[in-house]
Specification:
2 domains, Jelly Rolls, 6-stranded antiparallel sheet, 470 residues, binds fe (ii) ion, mainly beta, 4% helix
């Protein structure tokens, strides 16, 4: 019997060496991995007796009858039903789920926030914080969209983590989580392996996957897109062809890892927007071997190869889509995850920043680092902005003046990495976003000083526009 009161490193499969140490490259591949030799059955899924006394169990991420089923076969010390007892409801008041419309909040508007403060240990003491913040208690919902009960829509969150989860595990039955760190590294110890995640990387945690989250080197802050709908996938490339944008080989799925640890533990489940906790007697991270195509992964955003205008004009921002979660209506995403990173601007005779527009989709942006070209001031690392369904927006006055008067030489946009969660559904602000998060009350003023420049007498060809004159 193994009975340790403190966590120990998980037993990990031997995997690829070199740049893929601990991970297997590829997006949506059918992987196979085992942390003990011979643990994975070959040629079949359900042998009469599994090696090492393991139990076989399937984790289904799609309906059995999906055109391309996503599922993973796990060979584990105990079946998951042994990690599930009677549940009691618990309250995580800052983690909200759609439909959630607060009557005291106005979601109609252009909004921008400074970073939600992440306190160091000493600052937390000074502010008399009574509770360390874990992945669960530190999740702060900013917006919700759609309806979790019909599996459409999303939520956006800021996470603030100041403490590791200890003997406490979690899974979301509601959603797939896309994690975008902005400060500090996190370790996701999951049923299917270990992901270490740093700023400028993202992780995808599938619906139903059990894990705990630890800090690696101090407090951590970042963003989460909670996807209630169909899984994220790589966008159709069309005329762009087979290369550039996000290349499948740059996604990394962890090799199998398990812990055989018998210690009183809790498992928290998010289910239809409510949180439930059960007490178990062991770690549920006990999958010794697995094979399948339903698994967590991470991706280094600096490997994203942007494609853009090379002569004139400005493509839609969808040209920078990293991942898309379909909605069932072709070309209209439940969520697009879009990346604005370093790139060259070379277009001739062109207004180069993002143009002014109104959009039926709603756009939530976050700044990972640096300066965003349409908003040189005010949109800072760790900050967020929301331009909701059919709300006009665009460059502020300074960005407009600079872009319309600049000498259009090739210009490198450097020191910049922002992203967008764009959804076909309107996003509703939470009370936290409206009243507690550092909302910039003066954001709307960034367009106030845009001037009327119209002069009907100025003809583009230099002639006189007065009626009757040439
Ligand atoms: Fe926009």
């Amino acid at each position: 019997m193994t009975d340790q009161s403190t966590p120990r490193p998980m037993v990990q499969a031997q995997g690829p060496t070199g740049p893929h140490q601990g991970y297997m490259p590829g997006f949506g591949n059918d992987f196979e991995t085992e942390a003990l030799p011979g643990a994975l059955p070959q040629g079949m899924n359900s042998p009469q007796k599994c090696a090492y006394g393991l139990y076989g169990e399937q984790l289904s991420g799609t309906a059995f009858t999906a055109t391309r089923p996503e599922r993973t076969w796990c060979y584990r010390i105990r079946p998951s039903v042994k990690h599930s007892r009677r549940y009691e409801k618990i309250d995580l008041p800052y983690w909200k789920t759609a439909p959630h419309i607060d009557p005291d909040v106005i979601s109609l508007g252009q909004y921008r926030w400074d970073p939600v403060p992440l306190r160091s240990s000493s600052e937390a003491v000074a502010h008399q914080d009574t509770e360390a913040l874990t992945w669960l208690t530190g999740m702060r919902t900013m917006t919700t969209a759609g309806d979790v009960n019909t599996q459409v829509g999303m939520a956006s969150h800021v996470y603030l983590v100041t403490a590791s989860m200890v003997d406490d595990y979690f899974y979301s039955a509601d959603s797939e989580l896309l994690v975008v760190p902005q400060q500090g590294r996190l370790r996701f110890l999951t049923e299917l392996g270990v992901i270490d995640l740093a700023p400028q990387e993202i992780a995808i945690l599938p619906r139903g996957l059990v894990y705990r989250v630890e800090l690696i080197d101090g407090p951590a802050r970042g963003f989460v897109c909670e996807n209630y709908g169909q899984k994220f996938e790589l966008p159709g490339r069309g005329p762009i062809g087979a290369n550039c944008m996000a290349n499948p080989r740059d996604f990394k799925t962890p090799v199998a890892a398990f812990e055989d640890r018998e210690v009183p533990s809790t498992l928290t489940v998010k289910w239809c927007g409510q949180f439930h906790r059960t007490e178990i007697a062991q770690s549920p991270l006990d999958v010794v071997a697995w094979h399948g195509n339903y698994a967590p992964c991470k991706y280094d955003l600096t490997t994203y190869c942007p494609v853009g205008a090379i002569l004139f004009d400005h493509p839609d921002p969808s040209i920078f889509t990293v991942l898309t979660a379909p909605s069932g209506q072709p070309g209209t995403a439940n969520i697009d995850f879009v990346l604005f990173r370093e790139r060259w601007l070379v277009a001739e005779n062109t207004f180069r920043p993002p143009w002014y527009h109104k959009n039926v989709m709603s756009e939530l942006m976050g700044n990972i680092y640096g300066q965003y070209d349409a908003k040189p001031q005010g949109f800072v690392p760790g900050g967020l902005s929301l331009h909701n369904m059919m709300l006009p927006h665009g460059p502020d006055r300074d960005a407009f003046e600079k872009a319309t008067n600049a000498e259009l030489k090739p210009h490198k946009l450097d020191n910049t990495m922002s992203f967008m969660f764009e959804t076909r559904f309107p996003q509703h602000l939470t009370a936290f976003a409206a009243h507690e998060a550092p909302l910039q009350d003066d954001y709307i003023d960034c367009w106030t000083s845009l001037e009327k420049k119209f002069d009907g007498s100025l003809r583009p060809d230099g002639g006189d526009a007065t009626p009757g004159k040439k």
